[in-house]
Every structure is written in C-alpha cells, then in structure tokens.
Amino acid sequence: MLSISLLVLVTGCYLLLLFLIAFIGDKYQLPKRVKPVVYSLGLGVYCTSWAFYGVTGQAATTGWWLTPTYTGAILVFIFAWPLVLKVAKICRQQSLTSLADFISSRYGKSTRLAGLITLVSVAAIIPYIALQLRAMTDSFTAVTQYQNSNGIFDISLVFSVMLAMFAILFGTRRIRPSEQNPGLLMAISFESIVKLVTFLLVGIFVCFWMFSSPAQLLAAAREHQAIIAISAPPSYVYLTQALLGVLMMFCLPRQFHMAFIEQKTESELISARWLFPLFLIALNVFALPIAYAGLILFANQDVGSDSFMLQLPIYADNEWMTLVSYLGGFSAATSMVIVATIVLSIMVSNDLITPKLLAREQGRSTVFRLNHQLSPNRLLMIRRITIATILLAAWAYYQSISNTELLAVTGLMAMTLVAQFAPAMIFGLTWNRANHTAAYRSIVTGTLVWAYTLLLPSMLQDTQFYHHYFAEGLFNQQWLIPTALFGIEIDFIAHGVLMSLILNVLVFIYYSLSKTPSMAERLQARNYLLSPEAQEQLLPGNTPLTVNDVRALLSRFFGEDYAQAIIDCHYQDKQVHGEYLISTELEAKVEQELSGVIGGPSARLLLNSAKSQRHAKVNDVVDIVDEASELLRFNRSLLQATIQNVNQGIAVVDKELRLVAWNRRYIEMFDYPEEQIYVGRPVEEVIRFNANRGFFGDSPKQQEIEKRITYLRQGIPYRFQRVQKSGKVYEMNGNPLPGGGFVTTYADITDFVKTQKALEEINAHLESRVEQRTADLQRLNQALAEAKQDAEQANINKSRYFAALSHDLLQPFNAANLFSSILQEKCDDKDIRELSKNISYSLENAEQLLSSILELTKLDAGTIRPHIEDFYLGTFLQPICDEFRLLAEEKGLRFQANVDNVGTRSDKTLLRRVIQNLLTNAIRYTEQGQVELSLERQGMDILIHIKDSGIGIKEQDQQRIFNDFEQINQNKEQGLGLGLAITSRICKILGIGLTLNSTFGRGSEFTIVLPVIALSDKPVPQELTSPVNRQDLKSLKVLIIDNDDAVLVAMDKRLSEWGCQAWQAKDQQTAIAVTEQHQPQLIIADYHLDDGVTGLQVVNFIHQQVDANIPIIINSADHSEEIREQIREQGFQFLNKPVKPAALKRTIKQLVK
C-alpha cells in the first residue's frame, strides 16, 4: 500500500504539471509538424476512466479483446470520413461553438432547440462525470486504504474542487469559445500519452513479471475454469455498442468539441484518421491478458473485474507499478471531467442563460442595458460559475447513489441519451426537408423512451412503485414493459438503444414529411447541404443594417478597435460613411463573429433585434411573417420605452382625432388628473378642459379651441410658445403622421428663455467693451510677436553656437585619435603601445562625454524640433540593422532582426538616434549570446523590441539608469551614463512610449511604441553609392578633403599605413584638380569646410564634373541628426569625428568589397 501523503503529493504534482503544460501551450506556439499529432492525441479524451479500468472488466466478462465502442469510433474514420470532413468544414466556416450550436444553427438557429440539446447533455454528462469521480475516489481508496466518513474532507470533493479550478483557469480565458485553446489541447494530449503509456506498462508488467511470458499466461488461462466459462454475449450486443461508438464521435459534446471545434485545418484531421485508430487499438492490446491474469489470481477473492488494472500491481506488492496504474486511471478521469465541464459551460451560457438575458432585456426600457448584461467579463463569469455548479452537481449525484449499482451502467446510459441527437444531426446534413419541429420532437421522443426503458428500471427496479406500476407493463399492457417494449426481450442496454433510436427516427421522418421548413431554416440549410459555390448564387440582397449599427454591436463584445478592423477589412480602401447600408456578406461575417461569443441562436436573436426591416422576395414574405413578429414586438416595446424616458411631453392622436398615446412627462407638465386622460378620448375635450383652466388667457375659448382643431384636421405643422400661469414657458411642436393622425411634443424652455433675455441685456453693452478689449488685444499681440521674434532669433543663434562649438571642440580629437591609432600599430615597444592604447581610450571617453553633453544641452534648451513624417518602418530599420549586425559579429554576438514594412509616423532622424543608442547599449553590455530587434503589432500600435542576453538590470536600478551620468555597472569600463538619458529625452520630444523589462543576470528588453499608419505608396528601396569591387585596401586611391591641416596629415598617415594612396585637398578647387588628375576610388570629406562651404556640396560638384559615381564617406564633428539625414538621403556613409580607425576601416571595406 502507498501512503496517503505520498499519493496526495504525486496527485498534486501531476495536476501542477498539467497546469504547466497548459500554460506553455497557451504562451508558445507549437511547430507546425507537431500540431496534427497533438490534435490526434487530444481526441483521446474519448477514453475515460471506464475505458482504462472497465475495458479489462468487459474483457473478463465477455471475452472481447477490442471494446465495441472503440470499434465504432475506428469505423467512423474508415467509412464515414466524408461526413467527418463535412462537419469539420461547417464548424470552421460558421464559427460554431458547440454541438448544440451546430444542430440548432442547421434548424434556423433555433434558441429553443439549442436549449433542449443543452439540457439533455447536462442530464447525460453529470452522471458520467460522477462516474469519473467514483473511479478517482475508488482508486485512491484502493491504493491507500483511506476511509473517511466526514463529507467535508471527502477525497471526491477535493478532486472536484481541483478539477474545477483547472477547468476555470484554462477553459474560460477566452471570450470566444470558437477560438482554439492550445493550452487545454496540449494538456489533454499529454493525458492521452499518460493513459496509453501506463496501460502498456501495466500490461507488460503482468505478462512478463507476474507471469514469465504471455505464453505462460495463455496456457494458464486455457486451464482455468473461470476463463473457460466466459460466454460472449450475442453478437447484436457488440453491434449495438459499436453503433454507440459511431454516434459518439459526433454526438458526445466533449468529443464533438475536441474533434471539430479545436481543429484548425483539414490536415490535422487527415493525420488523426490513422493516429487515433492506432491509439484506440493500442489501448486494447493488453485488455484480455490483464483480464485473464485477474481471473486467475483473484479466482477465490471478492475482487471486481473493473479493478484488475489496479489490483494486480497491488497483489504483486509493486508500489511503483501501483502508482503508474493509479496515474493512468487518474489521467483518464481528469481529461474527461475537464473537457466535459468546459464544453457544458459553453453550452449552458450560450444556449440557456444568454438567450434568457436577451429576451428579458427586450421587454425593458432600453437595449443599451445589453452592454452590461452581455459584457465579456459577465459571460466569462457565467461560464466559470457553470463549471463549478456542474462539478458540484456531479459530486452530489455521486454521493447520493455511491452505494448503488446504478453507476455500473452509467457510461453506456449516458452515451445512449446523447445518441438521441444523431437523427437530427445526420438528417440535417443530408435531407432538405428536415425541419426544426422534426428535430425538436424527435429528441424529446428519444429522451422520453430512454428514460422509460433505461433510467426508470435502473433507478426504481427494486422499489414497490416499479413493481406495482411497471413490472407487468404500464396499464398492465405487456408490450409496455420498460425492459421489453413491444415484447422485444433482449440485452438491457441494447434494448434501450434500439427502442429510443428507432422511435426517434420515425418521429423525425413523420414531422419532416408533414411540416414545411421555415424560410430561416431553408436559408440556413444551404450552409449544411450546398457547396460554397452554390451558396453564393443564392445570397439575398442588402439588409438595412448600417455601418454604425455593425460597429455598435461588435464594439460591445470585442472593443472598438476590433470592430473597426472588421469593417475596414471588408471594405478595404473604400471610404464608407456611418449610414452606409452593409452587404449580406458583411452581415454574415458579423453574425459569425457574434456566434463565436454567444452561440448561433443568440447571435441570430441579437441581430434580429437590431434590424428594423428586411427585404425579401414576394413569395417568401409569408414565410418570414412569423419570424418578423418577434422583431415587431421588440420594436413596440422599444418605442414605448423611448417615449416614456424622454424629457419632452408627447401626445399622439389618430386620424379621428382621438388620443392614442402619451407619456408620463405630458401628464406632469399639464398636471392632468388621472381620469382626464385615457385612450380614445377626443382631443377636443382635452383642449376644452385646458381652456376651462385658463390656459389660453383672455383669448376667446371657442376660438382658440377651433384654431387648434383646424391645425389637427388639416395636418398643418405648427410651432409656438406659451407662457403658463406658473411662469414656465412651453414650446409646442405639432407634426402630421403618415396615414393620418398628429403628434405634438411639449418642451419646457423656461431656462432657455431666461438665458436669451440675459444675453440680450449683455449684448446692449457689448460693443463698447469689445472695442476696448480689441485695442488691448492688439497691444498684447504686438508685444507677443516681438517677444516671439526675439526668442526665435535666440534659438537660431543658440543652434549655430552649438554646431560651431561641437565642430571646433571635436576637430582636434579627430586628429589626435588617428595619430594615436597609428602610434599604437607602428610602435614595437610594449609600454609605449600600452600608453598609446590608454591615450586612445581617454580620447574616446572625452569625445563621448563632450558629444553627449552637447546633445543633452540642445535637448534641454529646446532647440531640437521634431520633423514628423510618415514612412515604412522596415525600410527605415534595415540600414540600422546592417550597421549593428557588423558591430555584433565583431564582438562574437548573434544579431537577429525581424522587421516588416509597417507604416508609422515619427521623426526619422530622432527615432534613429533612439534605436542606435539602445542597440549600442545592448551590444556593449552583452558578453555572449545575442541581440535581437523585432516588431510586434498590437492593435493600432507597432512595438519595436530591442532585446539582449546581457547582464540585465536590477529592479531597484531600472528607474535610475535614465538619469544623467548614471552608470549601474561601475566595474566595467563601459559608457558614460548619458545614452539612456538622451534616449529618454528624445522619446518625450517625439511623444512615444519607452518601457524597460529586465531580469538581472538574464538580459534586458527595451520597447518603443509607435502608431500604425496606413500608407498608400509602396516602399522604395534606397539607392546607395556603388561600391568599388575590391578585396583589400592595397593601392586604393583616396581623396581626403578637410580644412584642418592636422586632420589631413593624420588621415593621410592612417590610410597610408593601410596601403592606400592618399591625396589631400582643403577646398573645392584643389579637390577637383586632384580628382581629374588621379581619379580617386574613394573620397573622405569633412562636412564643415571654410567660407560656409560643406563637404556634401563639394562631392556632389565632383560627381557632376567628372561624371563618376565615386563612393563617399562624410565625417563631421557636428553630430546633429539633420546632417546625418542629409548625408543618408544622398546615399553616402557618415562617420562621427573623432573618427575611430576601426569604424573607418570597416566602412571603407564595406564600400570597396
């Protein structure tokens, strides 16, 4: 025996493993080649704990080596394959959510039929779940000898709670049950593997450890009396249960869900066609050997054959194999319970609760309450409560009958009950006369016959009531005996199956022939009977739903962004206004989307409530009247609710000038006694009543009455105001109604009149005040204009100062850096080389510090103004990725880039600076691994992720790193602590989001958030300067253009050391002369030359004069993004001064490769 603590620990760990697998399945996408295998194993939910334990028991009593229900399932994949493909295709096209949704959608999307199927399914599955709880509890008790009479700590209740938590956590995470649930599917597939492996392990253990070989076991079985005495039931029993196996592949709610709702593509079904039958056969390989071993070893013991799988390892005193057997049965039970409760919760919420909420709201004051009643959170909560309720009911059922024999036949009885859906499903897929009445009444008939032939004898057979009323047949009619209906005495289960299905089919055929399908049923039948091509030819015209209607409906369930995305996807580039009438295709898409949330019947009911009329052919009008009546009743209640809740008084008279409608506000405004206002009262009497109360002042009463009656009779619109005795002012608006009658509205405009008078008084003094204020404003505007001009000039001067300062300060660093690198390479003295290296490092730090301080100063001074434009992100990022890929490879890192051409809007120059800073940091602080740049679409935003596998940042430091001169890792000689400060300031200027997600020791991820913009023009690849086709730098002819003599000498020396031939030029004239004489293959030019001339102007002039496309490198001590952008637009390379030799050499090689 195993200890309770060990078994509880193992059980808990197993459930935690399921949680982990489901979590991984939800978070990570499976490889495409693995998905069909996972889907096929998911179909293993068909095999419950009865399949794990009961198969051996059935083999022990019947001698069957292959369970008949498995045989039926295998036959489906061999002979009913076209039907399987058809059902799967319909589920995908219609976004169906459950078995009830599938059948009810075929019959005009009947809410009533869906509710019936749901109720029958609940009645069938709850006892079936109780059977699984019994299996788990019995196996736990058998392994541990645990007994506890205190129900609060009942182990079955503990199991129920754990399974409810799992089902709620991973079965109700999505609002749309038609969406696949990869985490759940992966967990169920894992449980199928556990079932199969544990069954095979126990079989091998029995055949090769408990017996020396299968041959010895078979020899002992041939001589054992209990095995010799096994008598197989009649063949019709096997065939009847095989028929149940066939029908369960379509009619069992959990199997339908896993087979047809969770499948995405036809390729998954094709793989399952051979994988699933092999799985079922493998589960039966050792059924007979284990049964024989149990009969031999427990011949003289009171051990049930259903428990041989568990009792044999216990008998052998092998704790490990006992644990394996327990886990196999536990996995079989949990997989069934989890999927069954999730599926039932979908059916109950979509087909029972949601339609009731919709129907209740139709009778209330406004349909806007639907937004609350059917919110996504409300629907998910309904499903969670349903799961908990179902498991609680199953546990209560198990507790109430756990000491009876009813659970022994529960599995086959549950299968028989859900098999009553088969005629409605199969006829619905094959016969155009199948109708809602036939489906509904056939299921009711089959259910009643099932209750009479199976449920009644099972529950009441040993009671006096049964013996008194049913033992000899109802009303003492022999042909009405429940177990021998019509005098047919056969196997108990076989009798119930055949009687219920035969009568079910007969009722279906009778009502299909005697009733004509409604228009809605005929329209919906096309989706089940006709090919998509044939359906397109029968589509009706436009319906009067507008784009605004569709947007409002979808927004309540999916949000405004998703609703607009559906509309944009349908109309693509076409511009449509809100009152544009939608097409039938879009309405079908809307209904499909809604069906994925609240089921087909509820989606149809909601759309009918939204539509006020519909077009149809003349010969179809009569068929639509019945369906339209529900809509008309809704409209009437909506109109009445609207009238009662407006602020204005409303009174309506018919063409006979009799009062027919009014609202509460009308009564309140004129203070009518209750007895004065009633339907049918002549409006003349009401007017006279008001005249007698002095409402018309001193005017002649009869004259005022006749004037108003004349307006009403002639249908003349009118509008006038009247001051009441109370001082209130009412405005009356009267308008004729089509077909006769008149509607008058009464508005209290007292506050408006008071305001109007006050405005008139104010207006009398307004002109002089306006003239005075105008003069004041002119003076202020003049002062503001002068101040603005001064500020703009100051900014211009400041920008020029920064540019000149950065150029003049950094120019000497350039020459010093080049000389230092030459000294470092040429000097053989180790100490001097080390000293030269230190000088280079100090120069580089000083240059970085100076550049960063200048850039921060410009950012803080506000001299940088973003130039916002629309561009393609992929085209923008590609050069940056190419540049940093080289830097990463030089450091031995992998650089991955995943970018798409998504349109966005920002300042390209500043955005490039942000991305370069982040990539520089990522490479700088990563010693091994990779740096990754990727894009992610999130609604109307595009996210740029820059991720590294570097040292990471501690949580307490993640805010601090954006401060000036803040450097977290002080031990490393890395950076100056200004890069992220600059990045943060630029992001604020651009108005874009910047977030950090980092784990210390594992790396960091920065995310930039940009808007998604739809661009009409296609991205144009940037043309770069043609490179020289060379493999090295030897004898490369280079022209150097710079106005600083030290830089010219240093650059000449540096290039000569690399084997290049270099010529110097300080101005345009010299550069032209050198070019014409020596034909350089590369030009390196400073941006700022003397007399306001730029290197960019010089090289462009050279291109024009010599008519040669020479590769160009522009370098500058001015690091402004404007200069970088100008150079890149010309297709030239840009390097910052001081020029780093390594970067210079890498760039030259890139151009001359």
UniProtKB/TrEMBL annotation:
Its EC number is 2.7.13.3. The keyword Phosphoprotein applies. Residues 763-797 form a coiled coil. It is found in: Membrane. The chain crosses the membrane at residues 6-25, 37-53, 65-85, 113-131, 151-172, 184-211, 236-253, 274-300, 320-348, 379-398, 410-431, 438-460, 492-513. Keywords: Coiled coil, Kinase, Membrane, Phosphoprotein, Transferase, Transmembrane, Transmembrane helix. It holds the Pfam family HATPase_c. GO terms for molecular function: histidine phosphotransfer kinase activity; phosphorelay sensor kinase activity; transmembrane transporter activity. Residues 1037-1152 form the Response regulatory domain. The modification 4-aspartylphosphate is found at residue 1086. It is a multi-pass membrane protein. Residues 635-677 form the PAS domain. Belongs to the sodium:solute symporter (SSF) (TC 2.A.21) family. This is histidine kinase.
